[in-house]
UniProtKB/TrEMBL annotation:
Organism for this UniProt entry: Adiantum capillus-veneris
Every RNA ligase domain range: 230-395
Ranges for region Disordered: 35-54
Domain of life: Eukaryota
Protein name as catalogued: RNA ligase domain-containing protein
InterPro entries attached to this UniProt entry: RNA_ligase_dom_REL/Rnl2 (IPR021122)
Coiled-coil positions: none
């Protein structure tokens, strides 16, 4: 066994070692996870009915049959499985045809379940699946064979039944780690966000939906759908989500974080309203909703090394037409309102990138820094299917490894 694996020698077998390497202790996320579960249950149904809402849904734990499995390039007793766009290091007995459950990164496993105890060293209350390198090979996700999951197979396994049901997130008690736990690094603000427990969908009932892009690794068909279409690619800014609109019934300007309404006094999101004159601008254009990323010295680690709090707009939504503005119209609107947009990486008339090319393109640093950028967002310039817009995010793997996602 490689010397780097000596600390896991007490695990029963190599399969357990492989699985344990993909888990990270996450007790600090417990409160955030409980709040996130509440937020998802409140807003999920409303979002499906929104004109701007995507029709896709992320599944944290799903039943799959392994199809593409190869030997680990530098570990004789490990395999590497290709699951959608993810590469996952698996145990040697996990081969093509094996039925089991794939847990995406950001999944948090319930530590009190016996099947979880069997695959890790019992110490902490929660564990998060994350991106890691195992013997030099990037592994993103966790695969557990069906025979190790008594909740799903107490008797003979009905393979077709489970493959059709697919989503076993709730059955196995899997929760999602919030994508961003926003941290303020000084006390200039009384609150950061989430100070009013009014869900996003109640503040903006006519749209847009919450700010979230789908990872292309989980929805590879989006890459095929984008082929040949006019597109634009922007840099994904690491910060906190901020949405602004005008609602006369609520007294004028309203703002939300990713999930909840935010008060405007003594908050970071509220300060940006003053910086960019959003109250006056949106009163003049009450049909518009502005969505962007707030970033700067107090937010997270300020990876962009901004000297002051700033806003980078990535969506402009029209409540009357109930749709996101196309690229050219959005650019013109931001210029008219004098609002900065997220950095543009590329714009073109014919999208032709392969998956591997996009992963490579997502790498790099925020301009003028040595900080790994979070990744890229690719979008179709026009409406894709007459209703919504085709888009997806490509996360920088170096960023994921650096920040424990």
């Amino acid at each position: 066994m490689d010397p780097s694996d000596e600390n896991t020698a007490s695990l029963a077998n190599m399969a357990s070692l492989t699985i344990a390497a993909n888990l990270r202790s996450a007790p600090a996320f417990k409160k955030d996870l409980q709040e996130e579960a509440f937020e998802e249950s409140v807003e999920h149904e409303d979002e499906e009915d929104s004109a701007d809402a995507p029709s896709l849904r992320r599944v944290l734990a799903k039943v799959i049959r392994l199809e593409h499995v190869s030997k680990h390039p530098s570990a004789e007793h490990l395999n590497v499985a290709q699951i959608g766009g993810w590469k996952v290091v698996v145990a040697p007995e996990e081969v093509a045809g094996t039925l089991g459950v794939f847990f995406e990164i950001d999944s948090v496993l319930p530590a009190d379940e016996e099947w979880v105890k069997a695959i890790r060293m019992p110490s902490k209350s929660m564990f998060q699946v994350r991106s890691v390198k195992i013997r030099g090979c990037l592994s993103q996700g966790l695969f557990v064979g069906m025979h190790k999951l008594p909740l799903l197979c107490s008797g003979p396994v009905d393979e077709e039944k489970w493959l059709q049901q697919e989503d076993v997130t709730a059955i196995l008690g899997i929760m999602k780690r919030p994508e961003h736990v926003v941290r303020l690094n000084f006390k200039s603000y009384k609150h950061a966000q989430n100070v009013v427990r009014i869900p996003f969908s109640q503040v903006f009932p006519d749209g847009p939906c919450k700010t979230e892009e789908f990872r292309v690794q989980s929805f590879m068909h989006l890459l095929d759908a984008m082929m040949g279409k006019p597109y634009y690619i922007t840099v994904k800014v690491d910060g906190m989500s901020a949405t602004y609109g005008y609602d006369e019934g609520r007294g004028g300007l309203v703002a939300c974080s990713r999930n909840y309404m935010v008060e405007l006094e003594e908050t970071l999101i509220g300060e940006l309203c003053k910086t960019y004159g959003l109250a006056e601008k949106l009163k003049e254009h009450p049909n518009l909703v502005i969505q962007g990323e707030a970033y700067g010295p107090p937010v997270n680690k300020n990876l962009l090394q901004a000297r002051e709090v700033k806003l980078a707009v990535f969506n402009v939504y029209d409540k009357v037409r109930r749709r996101r503005l196309p690229y050219v119209e959005m650019v013109a609107t931001c210029e008219m309102l004098k609002l900065p947009m997220v950095p543009l990486e590329e714009v073109g008339d014919n999208f032709q990138y392969t998956f591997d090319e996009l992963l490579q393109k997502a790498k790099g640093f925020y301009r003028g820094t040595k900080n790994h950028r979070e990744g890229l967002v690719a979008r179709c310039q026009e409406q894709y299917d007459g209703k919504g817009y085709l888009s997806f995010k490509v996360i920088n793997n170096d960023y994921l490894l650096k920040h424990g996602h």
